[in-house]
Structures are given as structure tokens and as C-alpha cells.
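Appendix B. Chain record.
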Amino acid sequence: MRLRYRYRLSPDAAQRQALARAFGCARVVFNDGLRLRQEAREAGLPYVSDGELSKRVITEAKQTPERAWLGEVSAVLLQQALADLNTAYRTFFDSVAGKRKGPKVAPPRFRSKKDNRQAIRFTRNARFSITAGGKLRLPKIGEVPVRWSRTLSSEPSSVTVIKDAAGRYFASFVVETADERLPRVAAEVGIDLGLTHFAVTSDGRKIDNPRLLRRAERRLKKAQQALSRTVKGSANRKKAVVKVARAHARVADAHRDFAHKLSASIICDNQAVYVENLSVRGLARTRPARRVHDAGWSQFTAMLEYKAARHGRTFAKIDRWFPSSKLCSACGTVQDKMPLHVRSWTCPCGVVHDRDVNAAINILAAGRADRPNTCGDPVRPPLAVARVGEAGTHSKLPAISAA
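C-alpha cells predicted for this chain:
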């Protein structure tokens, strides 16, 4: 499995200036390539190939006085900028042709130096390396100190240097990792995600919703108000923008840390994990949209999925139309209605249910039923279609009880 490891960088003033130059050169090459293809399309000319594009916006451009400064940075990051443009075009063409699943993808757009995120990528051809002292040596930039939070599992194939909106620098490595299978356990769990409680498990455990965005609303509001009072284009406005970005980055980091720790503990303690396939995009259009975004369900389930695959666990999503809340986990009776304000209810069979715990138990049962057995067949047998000429029950005749 290929994983991405990200570490914080601490470049000095000269290295920050060199990185800014590299970001600008990669951005210019990307925009030049995009402009060249757009002009060819408007003039009715054939699509500019990848090789021709590289020749015109990099090799020949370096010989001109207007683009001579492209030679001050590594040629690899310029080639990678064009590779990103080519990937964006292929994704757009596949989306238009219907070869790509999901929502439609827009054509590539021009990059701006005012974008919140700036990034450059170095491959092995650039000969980047990690020194004996633990620094990251980048061509024409220097040896940048790295805050190593963990060791790399293998030699990285590439490194992406990122500058986020908060002014922080990161090194993102892509490495091949071996599966670390955990010892088998007997426990299995179904998880019902919600807003009152972030997650409720089938064994009755209720995990509180941290509401990290709501806690930081006051700090975010003050930072945004200070930004709105500054003059556009002034130095104080640039500083205020960074303060707002840092406040948002603090919330995002806390969300990521919470999801990592919770997903790791669940994967370690359970052999199989089942969750409901929620439509987060649809829920984000409803009244509690801010609370839905604050919960971060998609990030949490994505972490559960890749950690389960890496550690040899079973992970599955239950159909979003499965009536987990209205179904009695004891007798199987489905209630007609179950409004959101009903947090506990009594089934006609006499069992009193906690809404969320009952839903988690039903999710666990549905996940077990849909899981394939040792032969690869589903545990729950599918409905079979009757053959032509096969005897059946006439719709106008009363059913005969097999007593």
C-alpha cells in the first residue's frame, strides 16, 4: 500500500525565498502551458501534445529574456508542473466522455500566487535526499530542517513541498508500506454516526462529539472581523489573512487528530467494522449544515477504511436507505415513522430501545449478513428469479399455510 507521510519543515529566510521562487516558476510554467493549449483550441489547431508543450514552455522559454529565470530552479519541478496540467486535462476529458465516475470535473484553471496552497514536487530524478543529520536536501534550495514525528517505512519515491494558507511548510513523502496485520480478535462493531454523539457503537458505547469548530467560533469571528476592517492591498490585511488561516488550520488539525486516534482504537479492538453510508453532501444542504461539516464523518470513515485494509480488518458500508433507526433489533418490526426528536422508543414486542444504540446494532447485523462467507458467496441469499414454466402461486388464490 502506498501512503503519504507529511512532516513540518522549518526553512530559514534564504530557503523561504528560494521556495517562493520555485513556487512562482512552477506556477508560471503551468499557466503558460494552459494558455498555449487554450489559444490552440480557439484558433482551431490540433491539441498540443505533452512533448511539444514541454519543449515550448520550458526548453525554448529558458532561451528567451522573458523566461530566462526559469533556469534558476530545478528542471524537475517544472516538468512536474506540466505533469499536473496533463493529469488535469486527462481527468477532464474522462469526465466529459463518461469514463470517470462521480461528479463532473471542470477544465483546468489558471493558478494564482494568491491561492491558499502552493506546492512543488520533486521526483527521484531531482536527486533529493535526506542527510545524515535528518535534513531534507532539495536541489537549488538547500538542506531544510525537518521535524521528524515518525520514521519513513521505506525510501520515498517523491516529495512534495507544500506551503499552506497559514504560512506553514510541509514535506509530503509517498512511500510503499507493507501491510501490518494485527492479531485476530473476536469483536465486531457497528457504528451509528450522529450529531448529538459523534459515534454510537453496537456495544452501547457513546463517543461525545468534540464540536471543535463550534468551540473555535469566537476566535474565528474575532479574526474575521479584524480582517474585514483592514484596507485591501495593505500589509496589515496580509497579516490578518494569515491569522484567519492559522485559526482555521488549528481547527482542521484538531479534527484530523481526533479522527486518527478514534479510528486507530476502533480498528485495533475490532475484527470487523460496519458503518452507514451517509450522504454527507446531501446533509450539508439541510439546516444543520454547519454541524454536519463540524462532525467530519467523511474523514473519519476514510481513515477507518484504509486502516482496516492495512491491518487486515474487515470494513464495509451499509446502504444509506437501510432503516437502521426504525427497525427493532429484537423482533425485526419496522416502525412507520421515527422523527429525529424521538431518542428512545418502545416496540410493540415490549422492548425499549435507545435510538442510536438500536441503529448501531442493526448496522452490525446488516453488515454481517452482507459479508461473504468462506466460499465467497453472500451470507444473506439473494432473491432468485423464477424460471419460465416453473409452477407458482396464483395471485387470486388464497395462500395455503404449511402447518
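Further analysis of this model is presented in Appendix C.
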